[in-house]
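Postdoc handover notes: sequence design on the structure in folder B. Input tokens:
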């Protein structure tokens, strides 16, 4: 059995830089036509010139014969000014700007401390048609880590959506039923990406039988019921507000298996196969193409890809590890059997 779909895009991807970039970029290029590239390097990508340099680095790092179109993103800080936004929007290569609440995830220490600090930038983004991508968690120490997404909706995102009704917002890597409900109930300018690991795993996978650091990500895996089930419902519903974004975020094995393991899961090695597995579990393979290949470009006002990919129904074992910048990296589902394979 085989299924053929339009080539997908990844609307949320971390590829790092330097040797790490060279280790992982080919994984995405073998599957995806385009990718929204996260800007949380150290230092972060905060203006159009840095975005152009990073884009060129990514293209130069591609294995010979591989292609992917990197769509660049600015990193919003308390000091982002409107001219930075305007220049980036006019550059043609920067498609969005990313809100990281300060301290929310990897290399987010330069992120936004108060949403009102970036209101001038958001107003310019709305005017220029630049999308806002949101890591939707509050970072207050008194908020339980499993509640941070829901509290962010109540304390930040609802207000931003109200104050900037023309601003297109992608609520990235959603993890809760609260987020699903918010997106469904919001206007057509609000959409969301869903990762393969949040569709296929929950907090039991991370915690039962011992702590499994390679399942640790932010936002953290939630309960199966109601949250993981709500994500599966949303992804396989055919609702164009939900589309593919892996949040594939590589970290070397020793950085994960440490006293303070890094947050992030590598899924780029077999992203579309993982999504096919999730969709098949819901008898919804007919909805995979929309989620993977149509709804994302439609929301970004970009043309859909015209190339196709083919998935074959065949069993294979995910490798236990991959080489990564002189070290090794443990991928999502390492050593486990998948029943779909990219031809």
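Designed sequence:
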């Amino acid at each position: 059995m085989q299924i053929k779909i339009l080539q997908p895009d990844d609307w949320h991807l971390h590829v790092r830089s330097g040797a790490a970039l060279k280790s992982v970029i080919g994984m995405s290029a073998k599957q995806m036509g385009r990718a929204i590239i996260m800007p949380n390097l150290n230092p972060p990508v905060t203006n159009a010139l840095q975005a152009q340099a990073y884009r060129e680095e990514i293209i130069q790092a591609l294995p010979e014969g591989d292609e992917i179109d990197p769509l660049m993103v600015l990193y919003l800080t308390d000091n982002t000014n409107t001219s930075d936004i305007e220049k980036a929007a006019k550059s043609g290569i920067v498609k969005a700007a990313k809100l990281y609440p300060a301290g929310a995830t990897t290399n987010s220490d330069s992120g936004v401390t108060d949403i009102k600090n970036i209101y001038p930038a958001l107003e310019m983004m709305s005017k220029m048609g630049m999308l806002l991508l949101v890591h939707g968690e509050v970072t207050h120490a008194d908020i339980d880590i499993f509640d941070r997404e829901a509290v962010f909706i109540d304390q930040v995102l609802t207000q931003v959506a109200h104050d900037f009704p023309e601003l297109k917002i992608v609520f990235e890597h959603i993890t809760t039923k609260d987020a699903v409900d918010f997106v469904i109930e919001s206007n057509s300018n609000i959409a969301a990406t869903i990762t393969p690991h949040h569709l296929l795993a929950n907090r039991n996978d991370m915690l039962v039988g011992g702590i499994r650091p390679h399942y640790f990500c932010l936002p953290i895996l939630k309960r199966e019921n109601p949250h993981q089930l709500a994500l599966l419902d949303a992804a396989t519903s055919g609702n164009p507000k939900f589309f593919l974004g892996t949040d594939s975020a590589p970290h070397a094995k020793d950085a994960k298996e440490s006293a303070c393991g890094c947050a992030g899961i590598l899924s780029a090695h077999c992203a579309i196969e993982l999504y096919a597995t999730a969709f098949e579990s819901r008898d919804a393979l007919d909805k995979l193409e929309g989620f993977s290949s149509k709804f994302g470009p439609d929301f970004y006002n970009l043309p859909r890809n015209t190339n196709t990919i083919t998935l074959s129904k065949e069993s294979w074992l995910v490798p236990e590890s991959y080489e990564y910048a002189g070290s090794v990296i443990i991928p999502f589902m390492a050593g486990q059997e998948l029943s779909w394979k990219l031809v």
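Context for whoever picks this up: The chain has a mean pLDDT of 96. Don't rerun without checking with the PI first.
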